[in-house]
Amino acid sequence: MRRLKKNGLLLLMLSVLTALMLTGAHAATYQDVTGHWAEPQINRWSDLGYLTGYGDGTFGPNDEISRGQLAVILTNLYGYTEEAENTFGLPEDAWYLSFVLRGAQAGLFPENWWETPSDGPLTREEAMYIIAAAIGLEGSGTLTTDYYTDGDSISDWAADAVCAMTEAGYVGGFPDGGVHPQGAFTRAEVVTILNNIFGGVYNLEGAAYSEDVTGFAIVAAEDVTLQDMTVDGDLILAGGTAEGTVTLDHVTVTGEIVNLGGAKVQVRNDLYDGTLTSGTRTTEIQDGSSANLLDPARLYYNEDGYYSYQSDYYDVAVGIDVSAHQGLIDWQAVADSGVEFAMIRVGFRGYTVGNVNLDTRFEYNIQGALDAGLDVGVYFFSQAITVEEAQEEAQFVLEQIADYDITYPVVFDWETISGDHARTDSMTPELLNQCAQAFVQVVEEAGYTPSVYFNLSLGYFWYDQAMLADWHTWLAEYKEIPVCYYDYEMWQYSSTGTVPGIEGNVDLDIAFWPKR
Which pTM was predicted? Predict the structure, then answer.
């Protein structure tokens, strides 16, 4: 139950209801494209299979684009499938309704875009405002008059987007030096902007690509391999990849890599060239697993002294995890210090007799964290040695959290016990995976988001990472820069943190939730 949305790539679908009859005509046959200033761009997107014209053999490059048509383009660009409720007052029989609701559910469009239900023609400033929001582009605050002679006529709400699109090189002015913000946005212009943004488009299933790219690159098919290449921009793995594997073989990306489609990802580079090491042990990368795509260079300490992450594609949150070991916590002081979420231990199973126990501070901690306005998740310290015990632990957790607002995951935290005789000493990886699956299934069926906690040893040598790739995971690795190959959504980066409101050490965490 990942928060990632299913996604795909661009399909320039313009409805028959707007007189845009889709045909299979190649751009070279369009009667009205030869010699047009956008001919190369139209040819490229037609050759890629994402562009079609009218039924009479024309493309209509100078025809206006409506809001509904742009909603279709952008929603298909990322391939969103989950729909929001129609709170916009849009007609239920509108041809573009499903695309608007899917884009809205993913947060693709500006919140106020459909406040006035209309499918009228788009102005140029509206189009730039919408496209900038869709690709997560922000401007530097430069005045629009620094770029365009008619910059003072650009609406205040669109000014930052126009500057951002200009600074990124995706749009430019007309020969007179203006941008004509209230002018109509045409089909040729939308193709040109998309062409400027997406330098690489990879949509052939099973194909391998190796050309360098400037700008966004997007993978939109299953089992694609990128190898020995540089992407000077962001690399997006879109919805067409969802059921397959994307292999990144010695690929350098100067921007971000974002897995919007939820594909399995295999990475080969100087650090992970087929094998993984933890301590003195080495193992091979597991088939069917998914690699972590976070960029360590984007980690930084924020003004409150906690780790954060600079990204256009993740909602990043600062957190802690606590148990009775932290004593009496001043939760308001914790919240005031910049902590945004707390993972609360519900209880534990003893490692000798094996009884299930409630954490003595659970009720105090969860109520205090919620009262302080924090997002809350929970974990159970498991020592299960049978599937039945794992199910028992999950049911115990569900009973304890029933009356609380749990917005973060419910976590299966199974750990090995060292330096002492434990009932789990004879545990096997196969049985651990069965226990984890049993716990997760109970939690998921109850409507919560399950997760599994692991360190490098458990992640590399115990857990089936192909199984974990379908769930949230929580990594424990106490380093400035994590080296874990496998994917995770939360990272416990310190066990010796200090936080106002807590005496002594506390675990520090950071969460990375994909925005779309």
Answer: 0.84
For the chain, percent of residues with pLDDT exceeding 70: 91
Helix (H/G/I), strand (E/B), else coil: 277: strand
C-alpha dihedral sign at 236, 241, 245, 246: negative
Q: Rounded to 5, what percent of the chain is helix, strand, coil?
A: 30, 25, 50
Length of the chain: 516
pLDDT digits (tens, 9 = 90+) for 30-88: 889 999 999 999 988 888 777 678 888 898 999 998 888 888 878 776 767 778 888 88
Q: Give CA–CA dist 296/310, Å, rounded.
A: 10
Q: Tell me how far apart the alpha carbons of residues 136 and 74 are, in angstroms, rounded to a whole number.
A: 13
CA distance 376 to 409: 8
Three-state DSSP class for 371? helix
Q: What is the pLDDT of residues 427-453, one digit of tens each?
A: 999 999 999 999 999 999 999 999 999
Q: Which region among 13-22, 247-256, 370-379 has the lowest average model confidence (pLDDT)? A: 13-22
Rg (CA), the chain: 26
Cα–Cα distance, 125 to 66 (Å, whole number): 13
Choose among 412, 346, 406: nearest CA to 375. 406
Residues 71 and 78: their CA atoms lie apart, in Å, by 11
Cβ atoms of 286 and 489 within 8 Å: the answer is no
Tokens at 469, concatenated:
């790739």
Identify the three-state secondary structure at position 12. coil
Give me the residue spans of the domains in the chain: 16-197, 207-269, 297-514
Q: Name residue 510's amino acid.
A: I
Give CA–CA dist 177/162, Å, rounded.
Answer: 14
What is the architecture of the domain spanning 297-514? Alpha-Beta Barrel (3.20)
| Residue-wise DSSP of 141-156 | ---GGGT-TTGGGS-H
Q: What is the pLDDT of residues 264-296, one digit of tens each?
A: 999 999 889 989 999 899 999 999 999 999 999
Q: Residue 282 to residues 418, 462, 465: CA-CA distances in angstroms? A: 20, 13, 16
Strand-pair partners of 227: 249
CA distance 22 to 295: 41
Question: Which own/partner contact pairs does 39-43 have at CB distance under 8 Å and 24+ positions apart?
Answer: 41/188, 41/191, 41/192, 41/194, 41/195, 42/188, 42/191
Per-position b or e across 135-145, b if 16+ CB within 10 A of its CB = bebebeebebe
* Structural tokens at position 196: 């400027």
First to last CA, the chain: 14
Contact 66, 99 (CB under 8 A): no
Between 14-18, 127-131, 231-235, 363-367, the lowest mean confidence (pLDDT) is in 14-18
